[in-house]
Every structure is written in C-alpha cells, then in structure tokens.
Amino acid sequence: MSSWFERAWQQGSPVLWLLAPLTLLFILVSGLRRLLFRLGILPSARLPVPVIVVGNLSVGGNGKTPVVLYLIELLRRHGYKVGVISRGYGGQSETWPQWVAQDTDPALVGDEPALIVQRTGAPMAVGPDRIKAAQLLLERAKVDVIVADDGLQHYRLQRDIELVVVDGERRFGNGFRMPMGPMREPVSRLKSVDMVICNGGRHQAGEYPMSLAPDHLKAVDGTDRPFDPDMEIVAMAGIGNPPRFFTSLEEQGLSPLRCVPFADHYLYSEAELAALTPDDELLLMTEKDAVKCRGFARPNWFYLPVTANLPEDFDGALLSRLKE
After folding, report:
1. Could you give the CA distance from residue 176 to residue 24 in angstroms, rounded to a whole number?
2. Is the pLDDT of residue 2 over 70?
3. What is the 8-class DSSP label of residue 157?
4. What is the pLDDT of residues 178-213, one digit of tens each?
5. d(CA 256, CA 30)
6. Distance CA 140, CA 155 (A)
7. DSSP string, 235-281
8. Which residues contact 152 (CB under 8 A, 6 or more apart)?
9. Helix (H, G, I), strand (E, B) or coil at 45
C-alpha cells in the first residue's frame, strides 16, 4: 500500500470520495459472501481439532504475529500440542499448500511463517486455502489445537475462537471500508468476536491491552557478535507499520541517523541493503526482516526481537473458552 493511501486513510482526503462506488461494491460483495456462509449456502469446513483465528479488521500491521507467538507458548505451557496455519502472504511457491521447516526459504512461504517456525519450532503449513493447509498440518503433525495466523475473513474455515488485534495508536483510521479506508469489515464486527486485543496506545473497555517488550539486539547472521551502541546506526523496516519499530528504537535510547521504511513483505537484496550503510554503520531491522536476510547478512546487520505481553486475565479467558 502506498504511503499516500496510508496517510489518507488515517488523516482523510477529499480525493477518497472518488472511490465511493468501489467501496460500496466491496461492502455489498463482502457482506453477501459472509451472509451466504452464515446461511450454509456456501460450504464451510470444521476441523477435528479446535481452531483459534487471530485476525484484524483493518489492513496493515496490527501485531498479529506477536500474538500468534504468544499463543503458541501459552498453550504449550498448558499441555497443548499446537500447530499453525497461514495464508503464506508474500510467498512465491508455485504449489500450495507448503510445509514450513526451520530451513524453508521465506521467499517461498512468506516472512511471517518463517519467523514463527524459526522462533518456536511449531509445526506449520501455509497456503491460500487454509483448509488444505490445515489438512497438510494434521497429516504431518500430531496437534490438538490449531492457531490460524490471519484468516478472520476466511469464512470457509470454521473457527472456535476469534481474536482480533487492534492497533491502539492508529485504531481504525478514517473508519471507511476499502478502498476509501483501511477497513475489511465494519467496527461492529468486534461485537461478534470472542476477544479483542489492543496493541499499544490506550485500550478501550472490553479490550485486553498488549505491549511489545524488546529483547537484546542480535546479529542477523546468527553469530554471538555483540552490538556496539557507540557506533552510528541506520534503521530499516519492511512491516505494516514501520514508525512503530523506529519509535521502539528511540525508546531504548538509540538514535538512528536515518530511518528507512520499506513495503510490508518486501524482498530485499544484499546490494540494496548494503547501500544503506555506506560507511559501515550498524544496520538495525525487525526480526521479520531478518529472516529474509540471513542468507546474505553482513557482520554489521542486527535485528530487534520483540515479545508480546498480555494480562493474566487474557490467559484465563482464552483457556476457559478453549475448554468449552
């Protein structure tokens, strides 16, 4: 999504009204589709194990992947065997579904699935058809609960628990549906989901607050090379909300010379990134970026892992719903 659209969706622009006919068409088609699934006219499938969907109502990075990582660890601590499915957005495989292993090329399956597997080792399958991805997962791994990364609007797959992640700072932008605004579904959809998570900012009544806790900076190439805070820094991020990452660096007392945003799921080249640090400054990136750069990482490249923090009452509520 272009920076112009991102600004217009947040701040508004009269030009957006030119897109009103397309927005009306989007509302009609998406609403009719959901109604047909609810009435059973369009078929949906139920899996033999519970499904927890982690999604959002708006386009852009709201923090779903940290929530998925959090759920994997939470459920494991309580004895569940967790598997994960995802669309594999950005993956360039010619065949689907795909199994995601520790050494799977992120270019084939997408950066977020590669991050999830490299961080947790959880069994994972991806593909545009989540049902086929889930079938592959169940064939190859013994799991008793499935976490679906994204897929709130993938109504072909029945779900037992719906979690929606809201960006606490951007919220819902101008509130319009696509393409006039960032919304895939109306805000009223929150009334029908099981739990709403607010990532940063100020959470509202009924929402569970989430914060992202930064870990120690790590070398992209996987070595134990220490990070030198006295060196000059250039920051980059190819995520849904790059300013969030740049702000997190400043909150840790780091002052980059430059902050370079890239498009979400951007595919990097070594030469392109090396050009960002012509004087061998330290290049800082997100973990999502790092999984795509490990194969050609230079010694001066580091990334910042983050971990989601959620309140104990969220854990209890989720586990209770899972046992129902």
Report:
1. 10
2. no
3. B
4. 999 999 999 999 999 999 999 998 899 999 999 999
5. 43
6. 24
7. EEE-SS-HHHHHHHHHHTT---SEEEE--TTPPP-HHHHHTT-TT-P
8. 53, 54, 55, 56, 57, 162, 164, 184, 185, 193
9. strand
How close are the terminal C-alpha atoms of the chain, in Å? 40
Task: Pick the closest to residue 136 from 168, 98, 170, 167 (CA basis).
Answer: 98
Alpha helices in 110-226 (DSSP H): 111-120, 130-140
Q: What residue type is assigned to position 94 of the chain?
A: E
- Show the beta-strand stretches assigned E in 101-219: 124-126, 145-149, 161-167, 195-199, 207-214, 218-219
Q: Alpha-carbon dihedral of residues 194, 200, 204, 206, nearest 10 degrees?
A: 30
pLDDT (tens digit per residue) in 124-167? 999 999 999 999 999 999 999 999 998 899 999 999 999 999 99
For residue 145, the SS3 value is strand
Phi, psi of 58 (to 5 degrees): -120, 160
pLDDT of residue 14: 85
pLDDT at position 1:
53
Helix segments in the chain, DSSP class H: 3-11, 20-38, 64-77, 106-109, 111-120, 130-140, 242-251, 270-274, 287-293, 312-323
What does the alpha-carbon distance between residue 280 and residue 67 come to, in Å, rounded to a whole number? 35
Q: Which residues of 133-143 are buried (b: 16+ CB within 10 A; e: fewer)?
A: bbbbbbeebeb
Q: How far apart are alpha carbons 310 and 317 in whole angstroms?
A: 12
CB of 185 closer than 8 Å to CB of 192: no
Strand partners, 307: 213
How are beta strands 258-261 and 233-237 bridged, if at all? parallel
Cα separation, 197 vs 204, in Å, equals: 10
Question: pTM higher than 0.90 for the full model?
Answer: yes
Instruction: Provide the phi-psi class of 8: left if phi over 0, else alpha when psi is between -120 and 50, else beta.
Output: alpha
